[in-house]
């Protein structure tokens, strides 16, 4: 069991800045996130889109914001537990115990939930039969490309993942790329490569088509696709790869006994504490009168929550408000001379 | 102000008055219309406010920008009349607009 002062659930911008606000107060934290990298929605949904409303930063992309926040919290050497989802939260006297999908256990007097809209999961194909083939003939990610050698593969999607895997897997498998409209939205040079391969007859592109039916017993034998006019084509298929991005699922958070308002957690706007002592919520996932889903609001929320975290983690010490410009202690913690 | 009608796949429908300047998504969220999740809050990043716009209204709406069409690729069962309701801004001319929510949003 890992002991710390604060367990932060979610490594998006607000979770990252929480590390900073806790760190300058001398508190230790761990960060847990279901994604394979820090940054949350900034890195997953709009890494290349500019953001214009971060104070004193006229313009930066989701990726740049993430990189700068990571840089800002470097002095605190906080451990990130990625690819892990927090499944269980239970109380233990004045502490909380958190268990993750990777079987890690943490104990701390405080939890800050900075979980955005929940954890990201692949968007699944919508037709019913897909479930029984999932993990056998239908995949939402490629973990080991060796498993996809010498197969008839249908790839669905129009973005970079669909296009990149079409190129890669076409080296040793027969690929049909299927998309609901004629335009693809990947990088232009990738689209050019794809068109070249199609001309040479190395791959087949079907647009505008969508999945209609899957046939097979144990594994897939063929799929049917349908265009806007109802025209149906049947394609012999071993494997279906589907790349329709990610959806956000609230997941187990709903079962932790917190007061919820739809998909958000109700908090006290003085310290962003939930109805459970020592569990805080900040960023998009929290709600209170007048709440705005802005990154800067999340920064404010964790700043205030961190004060309450200090009081719970150091019950015998008095909290002293200090400025980074003048506090020798804070400057030491930041590694500044 | 415009009266907007939200229908679902079961044929239920609800008509509400939405103020000018709000989006069709915001009108739905403020009135607890089921089937419009709007997870990303209207930043064109999630496709969970996806609706089908009644055909006769399609031409009356400003054309979808590339980012919206890209996002609709990700939506549940997109069709030719698919739009993201967070990108439809209400004005008097939209009085009577009918949108239908898909069977589910993800």
Describe the protein's architecture and organization:
The complex is a heterodimer of chains A (337) and B (106). Chain A has 2 domains: 2-121 and 247-333, FAD/NAD(P)-binding domain, CATH 3.50.50; 124-244, FAD/NAD(P)-binding domain, CATH 3.50.50.60. Chain A is of the alpha/beta class. Chain A has 8 helices and 24 strands. In chain A, helix 1 packs parallel to helix 3 (62-73). Chain A has helices at residues 13-23, 41-44, 62-73, 130-133, 160-169, 188-199, 295-313, 328-333; strands at residues 2-3, 6-9, 29-32, 50-51, 60-61, 79-81, 86-92, 95-100, 105-108, 110-113, 119-122, 138-139, 152-156, 174-178, 203-206, 209-216, 220-227, 232-236, 239-242, 246-249, 260-261, 264-266, 279-281, 286-287. Chain A has a 5-stranded parallel sheet, covered by helices on one side. The two termini of chain A are 35 Å apart. Helices cover 23% and strands 29% of the residues of chain A. With 106 residues, chain B is an alpha+beta fold. Chain B has one domain: Roll (Ubiquitin-like (UB roll)). Chain B is 17% helix and 21% strand. Chain B has 3 helices and 5 strands. Chain B has helices at 24-30, 55-58, 66-72; strands at residues 2-7, 13-18, 50-53, 82-84, 98-100. In chain B, strand 1 and strand 2 form a beta hairpin. The chains are: A alpha/beta (337), B alpha+beta (106). Chain A binds chain B through residues 41, 45-46, 117, 123-124, 126, 157-159, 179-181, 183, 185, 210, 228, 244-245, 247-248, 263, 284, 293, and chain B through 37, 39-41, 43, 45-48, 66, 69-70, 73-74, 76-80, 104, 106.
């Amino acid at each position: 069991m890992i002991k710390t002062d604060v367990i932060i659930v979610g490594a998006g911008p607000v979770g990252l800045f929480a590390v900073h606000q806790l760190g300058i107060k001398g508190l230790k934290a761990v960060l847990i996130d279901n994604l394979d990298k820090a940054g949350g929605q900034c890195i997953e949904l709009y890494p290349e889109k500019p953001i214009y409303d971060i104070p004193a930063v006229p313009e930066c992309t989701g990726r740049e914001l993430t990189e700068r926040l990571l840089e800002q919290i470097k002095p605190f050497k906080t451990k990130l537990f990625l690819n892990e989802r927090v499944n269980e939260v239970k109380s233990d006297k004045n502490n909380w115990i958190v268990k993750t999908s990777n079987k890690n256990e943490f104990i701390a007097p405080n939890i800050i939930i900075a979980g955005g809209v929940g954890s990201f999961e692949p968007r699944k194909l919508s037709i019913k039969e897909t479930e029984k083939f999932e993990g056998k003939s239908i995949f939402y990610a490629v973990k080991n490309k060796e498993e996809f050698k010498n197969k008839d593969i249908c790839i669905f999607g129009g973005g970079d993942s669909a296009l990149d895997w079409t190129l890669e897997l076409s080296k040793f498998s027969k690929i049909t790329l299927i998309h609901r409209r004629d335009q693809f939205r990947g990088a232009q040079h990738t689209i050019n490569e794809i068109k070249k391969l199609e001309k040479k007859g190395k791959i087949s592109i079907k647009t505008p088509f969508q999945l209609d039916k899957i046939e097979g017993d144990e594994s897939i034998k063929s799929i049917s696709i349908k265009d806007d006019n109802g025209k149906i084509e049947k394609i012999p298929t071993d494997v279906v790869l589907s790349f329709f991005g990610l959806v956000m699922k609230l997941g187990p958070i709903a079962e932790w006994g917190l007061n919820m308002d739809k998909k958000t957690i109700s908090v006290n706007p003085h310290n962003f504490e939930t109805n459970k002592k020592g569990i805080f919520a900040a960023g998009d996932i929290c709600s209170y009168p007048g709440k705005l889903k802005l990154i800067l609001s999340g920064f404010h929320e964790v700043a205030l929550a961190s004060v309450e975290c200090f009081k719970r983690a150091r019950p015998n010490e008095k909290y002293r408000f200090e400025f980074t410009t003048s506090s020798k202690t804070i400057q030491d913690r930041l590694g500044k001379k | 102000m415009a009266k907007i009608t939200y229908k679902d796949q079961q044929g239920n429908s609800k008509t509400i008055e939405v103020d000018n300047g709000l989006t069709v998504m915001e009108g739905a969220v403020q009135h607890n219309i089921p089937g419009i999740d709007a997870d990303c809050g209207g930043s064109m990043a999630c496709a969970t406010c996806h609706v089908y716009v009644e055909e006769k209204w399609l031409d009356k709406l400003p054309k979808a920008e590339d980012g919206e069409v890209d996002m609709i690729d990700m939506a549940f069962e997109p069709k030719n009349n698919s739009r993201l309701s967070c990108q439809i801004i209400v004005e008097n001319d939209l009085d009577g607009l009918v949108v239908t929510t898909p069977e589910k949003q993800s």
